[in-house]
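for the writeup, i need someone to sanity check this before i put it in the appendix. the sequnce is what the collaborator sent (i think, or maybe the updated version? ugh). structure was predicted straight from it, no edits. if anything looks off just tell me and ill rerun, i have time this weekend
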Amino acid sequence: MPTITDRTRKRLSQKQLRNQCRASRRQQARKARASRRQIDRIHDQLPKQVRTIFDPVEPAFTHPTHHRFVLLALAAILTLRGRTIANLLRCLGSLAPGHPSSYHRIFSRDRWSSWTLARCFAQKVLARFVPEGPIELAGDDTVEEHPGKNVYGKGCHRDPVRSTHSFTAYRWGHKWVALTVLVRVPFATRRWALPLLMTLYLPEEENRRQGRRHKTPSELMQQMLAVLIHWFPDRQFIFTGDGGYGSHALASFAHRHCRHLSLVSLFYPNANLCDPPPVVLGKRPSHRPRKKGAKLPAPQAVVAATVQRKKLNVSWYGGGRRNVEVVSRTGQWYKSGAALIPILWVFVHDLTGTHRDTYLFTTDLSMTVPRIIETYTGRWNIETTFQELRAYLGVETTRGWSRNTVLRVAPCLFGLYTVVALLYAELPARYTRVRVVDWPGKRDVTFSDAITAVRRWLWVEWVFAIPGHREAFSKLRGPFRQIVLNGLAPAA
């Protein structure tokens, strides 16, 4: 019976092995240089609007990593499937030269600074949308579902969207604390909440396992606000958060930095309020001076005793207006072991009866009552941002599990929301006229309109404008060209 015998391999000497390794390394280096040259040519062919946004963030990366990062960011806008690296490379095709591992390493292994990227990005956004005047910020946390047993920072968190007053829903995944800037874009009447900074909330068990101090979402938000104050010491910020961020500690932080930061949030009906401590004149007293003055009635007691309430017409949720009744007072918010905080609180009663009564407060005593109400109701735009991020940018479709990948991918996807708004604001008029869905009474541009217009613009002005693609695309007739673009650039 015939058999297949193994061929005897020629044994190589040490010198021949070294020469073979050198030749292999030289070949790999030649391929890498060719890939970098090709990526540089593709980067030079990007539209001017894209380079205007991404060139300022280049100091956060090395030169090759920056060019690959820009390609992946544009692919995340263009693709219609999950935002995994494999899907992004599948969408780019020949526009992503080089070995696929060089793109996977960008988020998992490459060295680049997330803080430098965030600072350059924040400077670009504020210079474009809020060049002067106070900057209104909105903060909240959102839960992103993420499958997998070995995912870094994963935990079981309460889902605020699916939970009700009688039922609490939980989800396994990541809890991200987001800080957004509320801006008035020229193409919409309502303000858009554009993400600026993101941080991951780690469960208490995870922090205990890593030997780190556990930080609540309010403490993480305080750190991000401190970073913004450090980066922009000459700007004034107005931060708005829901009840989870209306803590005494965050209010104390805003009071200590009152020249740079004001806080607007929900208040407690039974809050402990008092007058400031009396001033002792003359010689030094023999006893410990008082830390607070006389106790003031709680807000709910003041509201119950007030017969004549002031009526106002203010901006409301969703861009409308409402008639409300208000009661407002000032006082010193006291908590044992902490300093007094001067605050202005407001009771709001919706005369239409659709919203329950609300107590609000601010650390800025010069703020008017209508401004406090309109500032807080404008915070709801951040919920719209979270919903649109899931629907159009696939925040919950990533599959990274390592520490670096988790801490880098999701914040970059959140930042893409702001990139789409920046690009749409710079598009030519012929692209902004394209609407996805029209209905009676629709006036504003929605995010689905913006991302569809940006996708069509990128396909036409970048992908199909590259030599080799331009000739084939120009041969298509006008109606058929629109059908192709409608298939490549739908809203979802």
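The first strand starts at residue 135 and ends at 145. The chain has three domains: 33-108, 114-276+294-395, 435-492.
thx in advance!!
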